[in-house]
Design a protein that fits this description.
Blueprint (H helix, E strand, L loop, with lengths): L1 E9 L4 E7 L23 E7 L9 E6 L1 H30 L2 H29 L4 E7 L2
Parallel strand pairs: 3-5
Antiparallel strand pairs: 1-2, 1-4, 2-3, 4-5
Helix pairs in contact: 1-2
């Protein structure tokens, strides 16, 4: 995914903190969105850290690329795995033992196991200092 961002500050390790404008599902045209979105309640930009191989400076407008594969992998672990383990635990124990209360307990245990996996993945990503974003170009305005 390629986005435009603004460099907020430089970090000591060669990375930069960037502000990426938040995109809404309706393209910020609230008159066309029947739901009447309340943009005053939503943060209009997301601040993140990006690798800075092009030596961008604070205030620069830059092109930022993200690793979609890595982000989708993390999203799958965080959102899908806990629910999959919930249903696997429920149907596996329910089918093997025929116990409703055991199936519910196994479902809850599976869900919690999936959440633990998400927390461990988060810690591993932070520890390895992987960058989901990378500045690829300084845009001249």
């Amino acid at each position: 995914m390629v986005q435009t961002a603004r460099v907020k500050r430089l970090l000591a390790d060669g990375r930069a903190e960037v502000a990426v404008p938040r995109k809404s599902a309706c393209g910020h045209d609230c008159s066309q969105c029947g739901g009447g979105c309340s943009e005053m309640l939503v943060q209009m930009e997301v601040t993140t850290v990006a690798a800075n191989p092009v030596q961008a400076e604070p205030g620069d407008t830059v092109r930022v690329e993200s690793d979609s594969k890595g982000i989708l992998r993390i999203a799958a672990v965080v959102y899908l795995v806990p629910f999959l383990l919930f249903f696997v635990g429920y149907y596996l124990v329910g089918g093997l033992f025929g116990s409703e209360s055991g199936a519910i307990a196994a479902a809850i245990a599976g869900f919690l196991l999936g959440l633990c996996g998400a927390v461990l993945l988060d810690r591993q990503v932070k520890r390895s200092r992987q960058n989901a974003f990378r500045i690829t170009e300084i845009l001249r305005g």
